[in-house]
## 1
Amino acid sequence: MEKARRVAVYPGSFDPITLGHRDILTRLAPSFDRVVLLISSNRQKDGLFTPEERADMAREALKDIPGVEVAIHDGLTVDYVKKIGAGVILRGLRAVTDFEYELVMANMNKKLAPQIETMIVFASPEFYYVSSKTVKEVALHGGKVSDLVPAVVEKALLKKFRQKSETQQS
Ligand code: ADP
């Protein structure tokens, strides 16, 4: 691999980071000099957590994986990738339902920046069904999420939903 290809960016909402996201990074980080988990802040209004909260949780959850960093970006992923001189965009694929979205994004990014490659990695079987969305739903209804998210996220979800229910009651 040429030098520029040894830096990868793993973009997404990460609202919040799950063990599925962490699994992708654990598996792929050794193949790169540096991997930046990039939190897109464009969709901030829809998020349960602010981009800063997501970044703090991700940093804590990934601190034991060498070469992994966390950043926040408002704008096109390819602009960030070019800015830091990375060559690869990493994405994960779970079900067939992810496929079309990932295909469209990869082709759009190729059109915008032909020199950047998208690498799609299959989710591990144990995390195939884990998404930030389902984790939030389970936590909202008091279900156990300790096997689905890092401990720091479990704590933050409990706090967030406790705050929400207290605001609704008052
Ligand atoms: P986005 O809103 O861009 O889809 P997400 O934070 O949901 O961002 O996901 C970021 C990337 O991680 C996406 O490529 C997504 O398919 C992938 N991903 C999400 N959950 C998992 C999982 N459980 N296993 C593997 N990849 C995953």
## 2
Amino acid sequence: MSNVFLNINNLKASVNDKEILKGINLEIKPGEIHVIMGTNGAGKSTLASVIMGNPKYEVTEGSIVFNDQNLLDMKVDERARAGVFLAMQYPSELSGVSNVQFLKSAINSKREKDNQIKLLDFYRLFKEKSAEMKISEDYSNRYVNEGYSGGEKKKNEIFQMLMLEPKLIMLDEIDSGLDIDAIKTVGENVTKYFNNHTNDTSVLIITHYPRILEYVKPDYVHVLHNGKIIKTGNYELALKLENEGYDWIIEK
Ligand code: ADP
Ligand code: MG
């Protein structure tokens, strides 16, 4: 494996012909935790969506290489199979698809045809991970995210992450809408998963608040503004932004 896990080079992307990302450069090595902060509308969710391959966004320039694969050549399901995972800011509801159906087919789509997960193993995993996420077992038959509270949807995203075992974990405002106990559950489970997979896993957290970073300790904190990364620091930068806002960085 190359030393750089995710390499984003001069990435520009548009939605409805409006340029949102204006030349993003970002390198993430295996075992690193990066944070992206920035004002509303800066392009944070756009960046995560473009890495995941949401076809709504048009990439007009630049490259995204992950684990020696050119992501821009791959569809969203191929990226998922390659280990790219996005916990969305606004998780969608999948009416008519139960959590079991969804997760079983997602897991099996990453496995060979002759090596599909055994039902017993699947349910053992489901039980174990839902307990870790403090999710009630009736989730198994409920439709994905349908009728869930905002916080339950966020916890379900992390539950899916634990089940799918991704390599590039992107968490888009996973902490918004979560109560304090749920932030702890989410943060501790992400860190536990990460600590068990540091050789081939990286994390990209989009957040407005340092609280989640008390549980998931970042190596780098980037500020995204107007489609560009305008500052990079460490955890201290997140604290400074919490106290002082963005005015001191953003040139007028
Ligand atoms: P952030 O996550 O940093 O708050 P987003 O990436 O969600 O910001 O959005 C970046 C910008 O893109 C915003 O100004 C938003 O209004 C704009 N945008 C998103 N979707 C569309 C769209 N379909 N058409 C036009 N502009 C859009
Ligand atoms: Mg956003």
